[in-house]
Amino acid sequence: MSELKKISRREFMQRTGQAGGGLVFALTFASACSPAEQAIAPIAKASASVAPNVYVNIGNNGIVQIYCHRSEMGQGIRTSLPQVIADELEADWDKIEVIQAVGHEKYGDQNTDGSTSIRRHFDLLRNAGATARDMMIAAAASMWAVPASECVAREHAVHHAASDRSAGYGDLVDTAVGMPQPESAEFKARENYRYIGKPMDTIDGMAFTTGGGMYGIDTALPDMLYASIERCPAFGGSVVSFDGEAARQVTGVVDVFKMPEPTVPAVFNIQGGVAVLANNTWSAAEGRKALSVEWDRGENADYQSEAYKESLIASASAPGTAVLTRGDADIESSSTHEAIYYAPHLSQAPMEPPAATARINEDGSCEVWACTQDPQTARNTVAATLGLEKEQVTINVTLLGGGFGRKSKPDFIAEAAWLARASGRPVKVTWSREDDIRHGYLHSVSAQYFRAGVDDDGNTTSWLQRSSFPSIFSTFSPDVNGPSSFELDLGLVDNPYDVPNMRIETCDAKAHLRIGWLRSVCNVFHAFGSSGFVDELAHAKGKDPKEHLLEMIGPARKIDPADDGGKYTNYGQELAQHPIDTGRLSAVVEKVAELASWGRELPDGHGLGIAVHRSFLAYVGVVAEVSVDENGKLRVHELWTVIDAGTVINPDRVTAQMEGAGIFGMSLALHGEITAKDGAVVQGNFDTYPMTRINEAPTEIHCHIMESDAPPGGVGEPGVPPVAPAIVNAYFAATGKRIRELPLRRAGLA
Which helix (H) or strand (E) is 592 found in, with range? Predict the structure, then answer.
């Protein structure tokens, strides 16, 4: 018989590569276990170094270490953030070593969420580079006994023109040690940027494509156990009984633990269940099947999606709580137009499901390796779970195989830490695809009611919009019964339309599943509803949709929702720097229409649809061209996207993000739907929760980035919201049939 031997998937890749001529990449244990210490490539360690701030460390070997405090999940942040620092530092790109920062408050906000990495840290990162540059200048001036004002930093060195002297950064370290660290420094002029605004290859590209990147699921520690956890099908339910002995009879199973009961509110805590620990993943999964758990499904046991949908629509159809009022939305008009839009629950479904490995050290401290978007929240959650001080917890951030908001929530990390302490051995928790879809934090289901009044000249004179959806805040407070204030400026009260009479209301909706954020959050369904309804009005008025959209946006102006009582809270602190600018919004509409040759003659059965939306302080327009075949199936041929995100750091990464947003938005529009029966999520894998496949993908996704010197806006999330409405608007243009409910698969169109 052949020897049965456990090998990793990377070892499998290596062996098959040797056999079949594929790529081979060697993996060391150190790289798997110490991502915080990894560099881009092996570099000789410096014998001395100086750290002007927590983001920069300059070694006397000339290497500049830049600490990336945000998480890399394919968006290229480990390239873009160092670009900003290196530019101000005047560092050579080939002498940069990027270090992934552990979770620690000294780095400021580390939550890679809300498209905030650049827009909230641009000046902070520029200052980190500029102060390091000035420290090198000060060191050179001191060494040469000349005024610092006569010295200039350029190309990884400081130069003194009057004496024709130069010194590399590494040569200045010994002098710089002990010198005062500058708190601020003057920024470079935009025209002098070397890296900012320039396309640059991602530093992780080679690792991504050769299997060298280390993800949460790849971590392996000595003496490690593998955990598989059976959780209650209904959110909030608890264990009544289980057959632990049957699970222990499975070969490879080491132990079985009943997890702590779910908490109220859920927050990011362990949600109960029974864990099987084994010597390998397969044995843990097989042992889990033998548990025969009896559940008390709790108060959400009767949750049925179809019944809830009707109650949600009824809620949105009745008067709610006004959150923005302008004039009198009930004013009489020559005609009125009404519609109800509905969008279901969604799952983030990242390619790499949640995975974390934890170890309890001899001193009682805990060390974790995890694919986390928010290492500080993970650190705090683990500390609370184990009764430790946060200083006793270390969170090492691995690469993330996608995140989309799911991996901001560290419940899976808390599970690994709890099991590591309970078992006395390191434990890796890996969620299966079914675990991820059925037990995650879902994007909220929503219903919206619209009513518009139109006068004899075809002008929209009134706008009433009601939005009903269970709030994300229900995860943090059990008494929440509808939209919360921080969700209102996610495509609701930040309404850009030039309508003299407007009222926006929110309506009650109770949560029966864990609600969390998904890429673009509430903007997804708010853009779907408002952009679709504006298109409806265009056709009802007999106007061209693009021209009507510009008419609805109106003249260039700056909007503050507070002027109409709007509760603009989530990004209100940034509104002064990033006002709602309808001029920029209209420019995006004009540009995307131009790129798509709006108004051109189309083949029979084809249609163009347009949508635009502002979210995360960026402006995105999308045009979709679709057709419908003889069987009624919809085909998306091309997408044109335009983004105005203000100052752009890396155009290549922005283009990639917009292309990804196009596919992500298509998946939501065509297929995305999570339903529940008897409290349990019905879908479980990509057979029942499909993604857009290559045969469905457009032949091309065109992307244009608007030139702008405005402060940076978001990029990762703003591209998603306009995609679905552009597609359904194009479907109407092709067929004359209006779609007000997602996904299109439900109507048999995909």
Answer: helix 582-595
